[in-house]
Design goal:
Elements lengths: L10 H15 L3 H8 L3 H13 L6 E5 L5 H8 L3 E6 L2 H5 L6 E4 L12 E7 L8 H11 E12 L5 H22 L2 H9 L7 H10 L2 E9 L4 E8 L1
Parallel strand pairs: 1-2, 1-4, 2-3, 4-5
Antiparallel strand pairs: 5-7, 6-7
Helix pairs in contact: 3-4, 7-8
């Protein structure tokens, strides 16, 4: 990935850069996540699974599944997970019994309306664009199906935002560089710039054909959860 003084990649360049980055950091990805979030990411994922509000036996796709964290939580909730990720390196380091496939999640290899639910964690800012992703979620979900999207955020409180900015902008790259890949963990804090604000996320998901769209700030605002129901 590029340095902090260069523009963030877009389009095909972004897709290739993100795929290569996650291939590199896959071996220690879970360890770094747990260390840098103080294991709060575990609770955020469980909250996301609960937000789906789906019964046991539901078929749920874990998009940008990485090493299968959501797949394991979905299986623990007695759902039937299947995972998709662009990074072959991530899939090779997966720790789940769920079915996995390498795929661009903007073009899922599944029939229309075949899924009861979709979960996705920390991937929105890494996509080529959000509109086609939300449209693809709508295509793959049955009417009444649920989507739950977990992503990083920034606190709205000024003091908390200042502290979070120092941690995310300085501590995360330092720790990530020591434990894994320095360039990747310089990019990840910068990638928040790709995210629109919460109101725009709600608008985009609604425009894609979702109702009952809700946005929640988690852990004083350092993470966010976007949920909706396929109309």
């Amino acid at each position: 990935m590029q340095g902090t003084d260069t523009p963030l990649p877009t389009g095909d360049e972004k897709v290739a850069a993100v795929r290569d980055m996650f291939d590199r950091i896959a071996p220690r990805y879970d360890l770094v996540n747990r260390v840098m979030t103080f294991r709060m990411d575990v609770g955020w994922r469980r909250r996301t699974v609960r937000a789906l509000r789906l019964p046991p036996g539901s078929r749920v796709a874990d998009l940008a599944c990485g090493t299968g964290d959501f797949c394991r939580d979905l299986a623990a909730a007695r759902m039937r997970p299947v995972g998709f990720d662009l990074s072959l390196g991530m899939l090779q380091h997966a720790r789940t019994d769920a079915g996995l496939a390498q795929a661009d999640i903007l073009r899922l290899p599944v029939p229309d309306g075949c899924l009861d639910g979709i979960a996705c964690g920390f991937a929105l800012r890494n996509l080529r664009a959000l509109e086609p992703f939300f449209a693809e979620c709508a295509r793959a979900l049955r009417p009444g199906g649920r989507v739950a999207l977990l992503e990083v955020s920034a606190p709205r409180n000024r003091l908390l935002a200042a502290g979070h900015g120092v941690y995310f902008g300085r501590v995360v790259p330092f720790v990530g560089g020591r434990l894994s890949d320095r360039a990747a963990y310089r990019y990840l804090p910068r990638s928040v710039a790709y995210l629109p604000d919460s109101a725009e996320l709600v608008r985009l998901l609604t425009a894609a054909g979702f109702t009952e769209v809700e946005h929640h700030q988690l852990s004083t605002g350092i993470a966010q959860l976007l949920v909706g129901t396929r109309a």
